[in-house]
Task: inverse folding
């Protein structure tokens, strides 16, 4: 039920079904009353003509005069039957021939009734009247006239009517529901569009929501856009400030160190300067890492960042005879900040270049079926001495302060760990088939649509 | 070796100038980007140290313009914004290495020497040409294993010639690398220094390590050892 359109469809179709049901009952009742009245009229008129045609017979009793009878009464199984009956005599219309027709008991003076019975397979309505002829006062002629008419044609009519009624109502209701669904599709289209665009912003495929939303949603869309743009500007300003802060804190440190007389340069003051510098570095970088909170930023092409870093590192490590192999699957993108990715890969690759004998390899690929936050897989490995098991745990440990760094694996790795945490990703260390350390990361990623 | 230091912080600039001079460099200084651009284009430099956070012309822009002006000497970046984005940008702009602030002077020196070696086509800190070995880190010379004492100026000339062993280097170029720009130049000084070097390195006049090309300059004639 967590869909507006489903809620609407259900809440409209229930009353609609109820309405149609009641309508059907009312119409059905009306039509039945109508058919019953017309059956009654036929019975009445047959009764009147039978009574009018009745004549006394030589052998006693009454029968209709020849040719005065409704021709349908002459035809067997025609659905029109009649009977004139007294205490001793009885006449039946020829149409009853071969039928087990029971018109009911004799009626007392002045009685009349209407009953339903079955003649053979024919369901009939029987109207009977007790009539007294007084043309011969000596003889009491109490007669019971009965007329029976088959109900089949009327029932068939009623049945057909009901079929048509139900058919039309169902068709109408379906048509209404389909129309409603189509209308909902149209009415809710802007909301679906908004959902889609928010998703695109989330995946970094677009920067803001588009224009042209209906009045009711335009406010939401423009507020959301303002929020996105504002947030982006805020983070940029924040980073700029942090960068300037780092600069303005570290330059005095550099001056302090430079002012130390030769002998003290390696002493306690110098060590403290290193510590302070490390803390500034670590805390400011941590604060500057956006951690993926930045929505609507263009996704970062991993191959491009990796290639830039490779060139830079080959320059820095020009004295070392090493190869940096990049195995980045085409179209692999990182969802997040370019600076964060550069920092992550820069630190890991720098570390690998520092420790390797001659080989460094960066692998990047998208993991099919993984969640958005863990779709990008990055692997950095080298053929150096590797990292011991205790040191691995220490590198990954939460809350290890920057200045308690693992010997030989400096600030860089704790920075990597913090950034990966901020992105809700995953970082692991084990041994590379090359013999050195292997860092495996999972980060938010997507594939560039080609 | 002549080095340009572009740094806006006076204390750092002065310290670098002093310590680099102590280490045998001829040092030019500039305190902002535009001054740095002028010095970088006008002086015959072997290497430059550029702070990225400069007033006026930024360090990045300075490096780009120097490279656009076809200045090919190595450039070392000093940066307080120690993040990879900035490093990559700096290296892409044309710098060759970086050192993060607050730096140890020894690291700056080591990087500069490494850059100079690389620029001269040398892979290790020891420049070996036959029996003559010059250690750029220790600033020592040995000939066939025996140490040879050189004066500062003699060392500077020999280092320059050996770093670019095989290339012809003019007297003017050597002079410029020995003295600051405002020093009164006298090409006879170079001739005297080269003569003293020849006697110290090759007393028996058998190796003939330094060739004189009349009217053009000098060339370190011994071939570089393949291993280095």
Result:
């Amino acid at each position: 039920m967590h869909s507006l359109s489903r809620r609407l469809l259900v809440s409209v179709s229930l009353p609609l079904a109820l309405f149609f049901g009641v309508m059907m009952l009312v119409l059905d009742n009306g039509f039945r009353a109508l058919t019953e009245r017309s059956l009654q009229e036929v019975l009445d008129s047959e009764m009147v003509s039978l009574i009018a045609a009745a004549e006394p017979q030589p052998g006693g009793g009454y029968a209709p005069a020849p040719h005065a009878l409704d021709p349908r009464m002459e035809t067997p199984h025609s659905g029109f039957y009649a009977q004139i009956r007294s205490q001793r005599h009885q006449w039946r219309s020829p149409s009853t021939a071969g039928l087990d027709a029971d018109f009911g008991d004799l009626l007392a003076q002045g009685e009349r009734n209407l009953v339903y019975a079955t003649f053979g397979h024919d369901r009939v309505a029987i109207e009977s009247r007790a009539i007294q002829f007084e043309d011969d006062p000596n003889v009491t002629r109490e007669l019971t006239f009965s007329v029976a008419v088959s109900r089949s044609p009327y029932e068939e009519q009623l049945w057909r009517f009901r079929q048509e009624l139900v058919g039309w109502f169902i068709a109408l209701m379906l048509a209404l529901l389909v129309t409603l669904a189509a209308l909902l599709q149209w009415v809710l289209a802007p909301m679906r569009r908004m959902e889609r665009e928010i998703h695109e912003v989330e995946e970094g495929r677009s920067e803001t929501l588009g224009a042209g939303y209906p009045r009711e949603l335009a406010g939401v869309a423009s507020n959301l856009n303002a929020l996105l743009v504002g947030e982006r500007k805020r983070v940029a300003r924040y980073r700029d400030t942090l960068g300037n802060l780092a600069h303005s804190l570290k330059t005095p440190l550099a001056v302090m160190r430079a002012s130390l007389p030769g002998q003290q340069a390696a002493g306690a003051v110098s060590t403290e300067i290193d510590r302070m510098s490390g803390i500034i570095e670590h805390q400011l970088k941590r604060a500057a890492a956006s951690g993926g909170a930045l929505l609507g930023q263009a996704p970062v092409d991993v191959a491009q960042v990796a290639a830039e870093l490779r060139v830079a590192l080959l320059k820095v490590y020009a004295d070392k005879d090493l190869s940096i192999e990049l195995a980045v699957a085409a179209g692999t993108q990182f969802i997040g900040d370019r600076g964060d990715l550069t920092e992550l890969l820069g630190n890991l690759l720098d570390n690998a270049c520092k420790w390797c004998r001659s080989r460094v390899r960066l692998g990047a690929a998208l993991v099919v079926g993984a969640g958005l936050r863990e779709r990008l897989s990055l692997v950095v490995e080298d053929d150096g001495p590797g990292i011991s098991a205790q040191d691995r745990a220490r590198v990954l440990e939460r809350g290890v302060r920057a200045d308690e760094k693992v010997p030989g694996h400096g600030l860089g790795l704790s920075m990597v760990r913090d950034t990966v945490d901020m992105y809700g990703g995953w970082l692991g260390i084990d041994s590379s088939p090359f013999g050195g350390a292997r860092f495996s990361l999972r980060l938010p990623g997507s594939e560039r649509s080609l | 070796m002549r080095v340009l230091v572009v740094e806006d912080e006076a204390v750092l600039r002065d310290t670098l100038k002093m310590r680099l001079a102590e280490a045998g460099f001829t040092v030019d200084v500039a305190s902002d980007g535009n001054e740095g651009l002028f010095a970088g284009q006008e002086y015959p430099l072997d290497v430059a140290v550029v702070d990225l956070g400069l007033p006026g012309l930024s360090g990045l822009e300075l490096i780009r313009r120097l490279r656009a002006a076809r200045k090919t000497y190595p450039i070392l970046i000093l940066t307080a914004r120690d993040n990879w984005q900035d490093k990559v940008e700096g290296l892409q702009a044309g710098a060759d290495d970086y050192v993060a602030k607050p730096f140890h002077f020894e690291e700056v020196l080591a990087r500069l020497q490494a850059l100079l070696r690389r620029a001269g086509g040398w892979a290790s800190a020891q420049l070996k040409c036959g029996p003559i070995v010059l250690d750029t880190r220790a600033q020592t010379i040995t000939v066939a294993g025996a140490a040879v004492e050189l004066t500062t100026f003699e060392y500077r000339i020999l280092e320059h010639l050996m770093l670019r062993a095989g290339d012809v280097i003019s007297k003017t170029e050597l002079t410029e690398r020995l003295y600051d720009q405002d020093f009164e130049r006298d090409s006879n000084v170079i001739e005297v220094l080269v003569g003293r070097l020849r006697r110290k390195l090759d007393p028996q006049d058998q190796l003939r390590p330094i060739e004189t090309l009349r009217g053009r300059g000098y060339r370190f004639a011994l071939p570089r050892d393949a291993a280095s």
